[in-house]
Structure formats: C-alpha cells, structure tokens
Amino acid sequence: MLASAPLRVHFVTEDDPLYVAEFFDAFLALYPPEEIQVIGITVQEPFNESRLSTAKRVLSLYGPIGFARLLGRFARRKLQRRSIARLAGGEGIALVPTRSVNDPDFIERMKLLEPDVIVSVAAPEIFKKAILQAPRLGCINVHSGRLPRYRGMMPTFWQMRSGEPNVTVTVHEMAEKLDAGAVLGTADCRIEQRDSLDRVMVAAKHAGARLVIRVLRDLAAGEARPQQLDMAEASYFSFPSRADVLRLRQLGHRLI
Predict the structure, then answer these.
(1) In this structure, are residues 227 and 182 in contact, taking their beta carbons and an 8 Å threshold?
(2) Which domains does the chain have, with CATH numbers?
C-alpha cells in the first residue's frame, strides 16, 4: 500500500520576534515532516501598519516602564537576528511576500503552489472569499481565546482580565465573518492565581503549535470533526485600555 502524500501547508503570520516566533519555534521542532509539508510562509507587518503606529499602540497598553522592557527585549531579539523569516530559512522553507493576502497576484501564487491548507497565525488582516477558497481544504486560524466568547484582539489578555481559570486556544475554520468558523480543536492553558500576560501568551503559543499539529493530522487523515459555533454567545473585544490594565492588576496579574 502506497503511503499518502504529506499535507501541503502554507502559513500566513506577522513579523513578531517576541511571541509569534514562540509558536514557530515549537511547531518547527515538533511537526512530523513525513505527514505535514510546510511549503511556504508569508510574514506581514504587525497590525498591517507601520512600526511607529505599532509602537504607539503598545506604549498605550504597557505604559513607559513596560514598554521600555519590551523594547529592550525586542532589541535583543533583533541583535540575535531572531525572526520568523530566519526560522523558516533554517528549515529550508520558502518565504512568499505580499502586502495583502487578498491581492490577486498572491491568490494566484497560492493556486500555483497548491496548498491543502493555509494556516493563519496572528495574520494581521481579514481573509476574503477568494483567498479562503484557494487551498483544497480551506484556511484555518489559531486563536488564543475560547470562541465565540473571546472573538477579536488580544484574547489572552481578555481571558485573564475576565478572571477565567484558563486560556482556551482554539483552532477553527476561517470564514468571511471574523472568528466565526467551525471549531476544529481546543487546548487549555492554566492561568495561575498571580500570573503575567507575558508568561501566559508564551504558553498559549506553545499550546497552539501542538494543537495546530493535531488538527492538521486530523485533516490529513479525514478525521476532522468541525463543531459549529453558536453565535448567540458571541462577544468581540478590541484593543485594551489602561482601565482594563488596571482591572487586570486588581485581579493579581501583571503584564510582564
């Protein structure tokens, strides 16, 4: 009996050496290449905005001291040349650049590459119908929140802010409506009584990598069992305010 061909997977992600890189560190160390073939990675700017705009956004959340600590860590990672692009290069994975996944040229490139699945890992834009339909088995997203309750931005923060005992990482099918596709798998990360957003975000990225591998293997074997969301339970969260940070601290948590 002939062995089946590996599942062809393309990733779309953002250029983040602090947290998203943790996902790829874990994924590339753990995935079975005889079952999953990573045919390419597309790396976009965070939030699909300038670095100055991103810096202002992060400063508004972390405040001057926290921002300085994050900036120092970011600078060290850059000096170490740590990046998702470099991780991909070390594994011989092709980089496929684009300004937008919805660009017709990028969509045509994807059709030529013939991925079975496109995986979004913190991709900074909404996937529209044409790109959603490009892969044979569709697009999936890893979201660090329980759906549909924690749709939107920074779900790890909002679960901690809401006093949840765990962060629930969800892998789901992507649909035209944000964070609304059927769930393919979940994994929980414990939130300690006094914890940091930084630690939980790293733990969630590692759990997400393991979960994506599990879901991809299910898809390859034809064993995926999508669970439709009840959108009557849906909420949507935007970028946190300083008042939200204060509430997080009142619960005994910190950012870093």
Answers:
(1) yes
(2) 7-250 (3.40.50.170)
